[in-house]
């Protein structure tokens, strides 16, 4: 079987799973996750300091769940072998999604643009890679970006992570930040750790808000 056919079949299987729900990845226990230091923990809310990382990102438009699925397919195509080396790249978790933002001055992400139908979908690349060693995407829609160390306020929850859930959890997190004098430095990021075949009660979802330096 050719690499192209194998990649197509793999993406077709995963895409079929996406139709079952909004969380299109394998179990979090089976994948590498980004490194961070835990600074504060109060119930489901944490403040984390993440180390630098590399992400593969695409920008897609449309309703949130459809945009998530479309973005996932584009990046999955890249990690399943559609790159100049035809190498497969191990999946990690979470897959993240946020509204598209403008880049202001030299900060990687600062001011939110009013573009609720434009989404950035990201896969975090395995830590074994550098920008020099990562295979380059064939599809120009897939960008490889270096993300510096950043701090986030995060709220963790289970369930299906529908739009109502995400809005409610974002509101709880923002009220916590306001009561603790924390300033946001960008739009909320939604992080999904488990596949749609995972029972909703066992799924790990997060809303993450980057903190101003």
From TrEMBL:
Q: Which domain of life is it from?
A: Bacteria
Record-linked InterPro entries: Reg_factor_effector_dom_sf, SOUL_heme-bd
**Which PANTHER family did the record assign?**
HEME-BINDING PROTEIN-RELATED (PTHR11220), SOUL HEME-BINDING FAMILY PROTEIN (PTHR11220:SF58)
According to UniProt, the name of this protein is Heme-binding protein
- Organism of this sequence: Pontixanthobacter rizhaonensis
Q: What is the lineage of its organism?
A: Bacteria, Pseudomonadati, Pseudomonadota, Alphaproteobacteria, Sphingomonadales
